[in-house]
Design a protein that fits this description.
Largest sheet: 5 strands, mixed
CATH superfamily of the largest domain: Periplasmic binding protein-like II
CATH topology of the largest domain: D-Maltodextrin-Binding Protein, domain 2
Number of domains: 2
Strand content: 5-15%
Bound molecules: beta-D-galactopyranose
Distance between the termini: 26 Å
Helix content: 40-55%
Strand order of the largest sheet: 2-1-3-13-6
Radius of gyration: 21 Å
Number of strands: 14
CATH architecture of the largest domain: 3-Layer(aba) Sandwich
Number of helices: 18
């Protein structure tokens, strides 16, 4: 059974955020114990910052943050530890081997939610609650977000941004040439299939996609569309049955969507799929709103050069993820990491970084008046939509679960499994 998007939109945001980010169980106990008082004391001569923002618009975002950092902490040398590969597809494994061999960077990018919980459970990152007090951050972030970052009264990272993962990006000329109204939005997957058929008929790629993690990003938005916000969140807390017929329907829709995509997808990363929209070789693409930064970087203007709208059937739902910076146990330059974390949490850092990155500031007091039209829509949606946690970007499920889902998805989209096997592989991935 399909859940109408209007039903999904009536689910209270706070309740869903609570449901879907429970990996970080909050508790109000005092965070001053547990050795946090001195986190960040020590060598500040340099800071190795480990991210996957290695190229293109993502690097431009990082560069904007580094500019503020260099102003604020001229005595700490920034060392770029970026490892290429969207969504951390290569970085996360490398990071894990560095952490396991006691060779941590000074700070690394992690996703708020279940992914961060993994690092906490493994004892790989430090409580930085003292820095929240020192930098006055407890007042700067939304309470909901802080609660989700708090585990047993301790906070282990400082968020830099909030991204939305359920956005369709489209080329208006391609749509017009296919006989479609470029300002149209679609209420359901079925409505969208009609438009995709039109683009396909016009001879263009109807839906551009890239390597497996982008397919998982697509999958999660189909699950949100077809199951509704509540049903989707239930996939992560056990209240939605992965073996159910509504999941089968969603996977059938995902399979159909994949039939509209470019066949060279597995050799591409997200910027290549976005580029197909920029170049007008494809009609539609589903991607998180870091794509906004790629359009901006290519000097494209909406709505003349590109249009955007929530994935059909997900209007009123904000598929949430946040990048957050950590202080690893054994960081060689903890003072450098502290300085980096100060810049990440500062209003100036958040304004410069997010404007360039396509995301919205995690701070509620940042000045966003000169952010793009798209970003204004994201700010508005984040304020009123139902919030659900992104699977592909670490908010909904632990890394091991995401890896197993990614493997199952690759098997399915390369033709090595059928839909029934895919569904049972996904159920097994979540059971662990
Ligand atoms: C996400 C990350 C974003 C963006 C994206 C594509 O996981 O949170 O900041 O970098 O991957 O690489």
């Amino acid at each position: 059974m399909r859940v109408n998007r209007r039903v999904a939109a009536t689910v209270a945001s706070a309740a869903v955020l609570g449901l879907s980010l429970t990996a970080c169980s909050s508790d109000d106990s005092d965070g001053s114990d547990g050795g946090s008082a001195s986190a960040g004391a020590g060598d500040a001569s340099e800071v190795e910052v480990f991210t996957w923002w290695a190229a293109g618009s993502e690097k431009a975002g990082l560069d904007a943050l580094v500019n503020v950092f260099n102003d604020q902490h001229a005595d700490t040398k920034f060392v770029n530890g970026a490892v290429a590969g969207g969504a951390g597809s290569a970085a996360k494994d490398l990071l894990q081997s560095r952490l396991q061999t006691n060779d941590p960077p000074d700070t690394f990018q992690a996703h708020a939610g279940a992914e961060l919980q993994d690092y906490i459970d493994a004892g790989q990152i430090q409580d930085v609650s003292n820095l929240y007090d020192e930098f006055g951050l407890k007042e700067a972030f939304p309470k909901d977000l802080l609660d989700r970052l708090t585990v047993d009264g301790k906070i282990y990272s400082i968020p830099s941004n909030i991204h939305r993962a359920n956005v369709v990006w489209a080329n208006p000329t391609v749509l017009k040439d296919a006989g479609l109204d470029p300002s149209a939005t679609y209420d359901s997957m079925d409505d969208w299939f009609t438009a995709l058929d039109a683009v396909k008929k016009s001879g263009k790629t109807a839906l551009s996609v890239a390597t497996t993690w982008t397919q998982v990003n697509l999958l999660e938005t189909v699950l949100i569309s077809d199951l509704g916000a509540d049903g989707y969140s239930g996939l992560w807390d056990g209240s939605t049955d992965w073996a159910g017929s509504d999941v089968t329907d969603a996977l059938t829709d995902f399979q159909k969507l994949m039939s509209y995509t470019n066949t060279d997808r597995d050799g591409l990363d997200w910027p290549d799929a976005t580029q197909q929209i920029i170049d007008g070789t494809a009609g539609f693409n589903v991607m998180g709103d870091w794509a906004e930064a790629a359009f901006e970087e290519a000097d494209k203007k909406a709505p003349a050069d590109y249009v955007y709208f929530p994935v059909p059937g997900t209007d009123g739902v904000f598929d949430f993820l946040a990048d957050s910076f950590t202080l690893p146990v054994g960081a060689p330059h903890p003072g450098g990491a502290k300085n980096w974390l100060e810049t990440v949490g500062s209003a100036e850092g958040q304004e410069a970084f997010n404007k360039a990155k396509g995301s919205i500031p995690a701070r509620t007091d940042a000045d966003t008046s000169d952010f793009s039209d798209y970003q204004q829509t994201a700010i508005e949606s984040f304020g009123k939509d139902t919030i659900v946690s992104s699977l592909a970007h670490g908010a909904a499920a632990p890394v091991a679960t995401l890896n197993a889902i990614t493997d199952a998805t690759s098997k399915f989209t390369t033709g090595a499994s059928d839909l029934a096997t895919y569904q049972s592989d996904l159920a097994a991935a979540v059971k662990g």
